[in-house]
Specification:
Layout (H helix, E strand, L loop, with lengths): L6 H11 L9 H8 L7 H21 L3 H14 L4 H13 L3 H14 L3 H13 L3 H7 L1
Length: 140
C-alpha cells in the first residue's frame, strides 16, 4: 500500500518538486559541467551529489520505501544545505514517518531559504498540528 504524505506537503511536492524531479546545476557549476570540469569546484561536486541523492530518494518514494527516501533526502540536505527542495522533501517524509521535530526543522530551513507562500503553508500547518500557535500564525 502506498504511504500517504501529509496533504499540504503532498500538494507542494506535486506542484513544484515533482514537476522538476532533479534540478540541473546552475551558475559556475553548469558552465564547468558543460566542459566536464564541474568536479573542480568542491561545491559543484556536492551539488551533483545532492541531485543524485534527491533522485534516489524519489525512486525510494516510488517504491514505498519511506525510510530509504528519508535517508537519501537527509544526504541531499547535508550535501547542499541551500536547496529548499531537499528540505521540503526531507520534511514531508519525516512528517509521514512521525518524525515531527525533524520535519519541523526541515520546513523551517526551507522557509529561511525560500520564503514562498507554499513553504509557509507547509510549516504553518505542521506548527498548528504541533500546537505551536505563535509560529503557526507567523507562518500562515
Amino acid at each position: 500500500m502506498r504511504a500517504l504524505l501529509p496533504a499540504t506537503a503532498l500538494a507542494l511536492l506535486l506542484g513544484t518538486v515533482a514537476a522538476a524531479p532533479v534540478a540541473a546545476a546552475s551558475g559556475p557549476c553548469r558552465v564547468l559541467g558543460l566542459a566536464g570540469l564541474d568536479r573542480a569546484l568542491p561545491s559543484c561536486g556536492l551539488e551533483a551529489a545532492a541531485r543524485l541523492s534527491i533522485a534516489a530518494g524519489q525512486r525510494a518514494l516510488a517504491d514505498d520505501d519511506l525510510a530509504g527516501a528519508l535517508a537519501r533526502f537527509r544526504e541531499a540536505t547535508a550535501h547542499a544545505p541551500a536547496r529548499s527542495d531537499a528540505h521540503i522533501l526531507r520534511g514531508a517524509v519525516a512528517e509521514t514517518l512521525g518524525e515531527l521535530d525533524e520535519a519541523y526543522a526541515a520546513y523551517e530551513a526551507a522557509v529561511r531559504l525560500d520564503p514562498s507562500p507554499a513553504h509557509h503553508v507547509v510549516l504553518g500547518a505542521l506548527a498548528d498540528r504541533l500546537g505551536h500557535v505563535d509560529p503557526a500564525l507567523r507562518a500562515l
